[in-house]
Amino acid sequence: MTELSMKKNVSIQEQPEEERESVFEAQGVNLWYGQTQALHNIHLKQREQEVTAVIGPSGCGKSTYLKTLNRMVEMNPEVRISGNISYRGRNIFSRRFPVEELRTRVGMVFQKPNPFPKSVFENVAYGPKIHGIRDKQLLEQIVEESLKGAAIWEEVKDRLHENAFGLSGGQQQRLCIARCLAVEPDVILMDEPTSALDPKSTMKVEELVRELKETYSIMIVTHNMQQAARISDRTAFFLNGEVVECDTTDRIFSNPSDDRTEDYITGRFG
Amino acid sequence: MQMMDQEAVAKSLPRRIAINKIVRGLFLGSTLFGLVVLAVLLYDVISDSWGWLNWNFLTSVVSFDAAEAGVIGAITGTFWLMMITGPLTMIIGVATAVFIEEYVKEGRVRTFFETNISNLAGVPSIVFGLLGLTVFVRILGLGSVVLAGALTMSLLVLPIVIVSAQEALRAVPSYLREASYGMGATRWQMIRSVVLPAALPSILTGMILSMSRAIGETAPLIALGIPALLIPLPSSMFDSFTVLPVQIYYWTIDAALNDDLAALAAATIIVLLVMMFILNATAILVRNKFQKRL
To answer: In chain A, what are the domains?
Structure first.
């Protein structure tokens, strides 16, 4: 892809007058898998009502960083972390901040659509149910709102009680987004949510992300630089476990300050 | 540049195809071997018991007169034994597997648990019988009752249930766990709502295998002192009992004295096989029902 076509795709977005309130703030985060250091001294902010795209070549630590934010990365027993990450002023590694609460506030959409082997309805109702909602009417209301929120209601409203595995890949991914919305999170982390989808489904998910940012703070890891340019307000470029540059998406794609960023977005490597 | 000699490839092709066919034949032969042996066994047992297996045989209690003898006592005993052993091993076995797979971190402690359970699976069944005799019959003073037999049998098949349940839990894809954790589920919520339902069909397969084992085990029960001659039927788990395989064992031994007893043993084998078949069929139906629901 040429540099020119890249730039054309960049949507012109207004600069926020003043900086929005930050949701996540990482300070000097280092992370090791056993002996291998995967993240080096990460400083990064994630703000309200913004989409932050995380780009970088494979193995640069972008997914690792995303999973650190909701502490899913620690499911690997070899992981060690140092540094500090705060979510709305609270240290996420604190004993007084249970991971269950963090993950209720911080939803996640995974690379591969991962619906449960249950009905569409049960998939979306899963989150509210584990958080103690039993009222059937309320559950129905939540399911409908969440499916509408994920722009999939029209497609599934007549098959709410069919197995979710019967949906297409793109529908499954939007169902997973609906499932995530049902818990009413504050932040949504998306780990390459469209990498397993066809172009049309990808477009639908991208549209959805643009709508969702009105309400949610979104961080999206993506391999697709055009996607980052299309949907994000800010872009962070990761390389070898470091943040090379983080700036507004416009600036990253038109006038990056670091040569390595420029090399990457113009396709000279990666 | 051509790295592959096309002529040599073409020349070797018939040989590869022939090997392919031979291998298929070997596999087919192995499968038939099992089937043929089973068929011979069935034929032998059925012909030996011909005329003996009737309603009277199924509903009568044991008797010294071969013509009068029946197996209702052993059927009831086997039924009682399975009713207690089944749920007991299911609960303890699955709980153990869940603990090891989901709660214990990989490392020395886990290896310790797993090694010991595997070793337990290799202990001869008679040893479990002696253990049951010491602990349940003597120390706990239960006597040779249904409960003592069921506890002994549970110990015997637990390793099978645990190992197969572990396999089932391990086969649950990690993305399902992640999806659940990602929404703030606690570990137990995740296990109950995601892992157990997904693993249940395979867990039940393990249960079927272990129950088939338990229904046919003889040695540990003989060690417990289960009699063959039992007139009153067991009506609670604290009653004396006998089971089909023990009945078969004693009749086979006594066949040296009276030829008719051999026929009775053969007829009892058929009853045992049919009971096992019904048990397995039920479990498979239950399993399929769960699989469909997923």
So the answer is: 3-9+40-265 (3.40.50.300)
